[in-house]
Design brief:
Layout: H1 3-13, H2 18-37, E1 42-44, E2 48-55, E3 58-61, E4 68-71, E5 74-81, H3 83-90
Antiparallel strand pairs: 1-2, 2-5, 3-4
Helix pairs in contact: 1-2
């Protein structure tokens, strides 16, 4: 499912104009992004948790040249599925 499909489904299920539905969906995504950018954790009970994890510096190989290189330390967004999402996927 793409973002535009999600917006269309939301608009249809709530009897809203697509433009209004797009604004709603974008607001939710922007809010999650902004919270993660500040280092906050976003917990959606029954769905999952978004947070930011620290990645340490590591050595790896350049895939083109096969030369060793150093990847700098950084942060990466992460998602951990909640029980409700896991059960839905496994149809429990």
């Amino acid at each position: 499912m793409t973002k535009s499909e999600l917006i269309a489904m939301y608009a249809k299920s709530r009897d809203r104009k697509k433009r209004d539905a797009e604004d709603d969906v974008n607001f939710i995504f922007d809010t999650i992004r902004d919270a993660l950018a500040k280092g906050d954790k976003v917990v959606l009970t029954g769905f999952g948790t978004f947070d930011v994890r620290e990645r340490s510096q590591k050595r790896c190989l350049n895939p083109r040249t096969r030369e060793p290189m150093q990847l700098p330390a950084g942060k990466a967004p992460a998602f951990k599925a909640g029980r409700g999402l896991k059960d839905a996927v496994n149809k429990k």
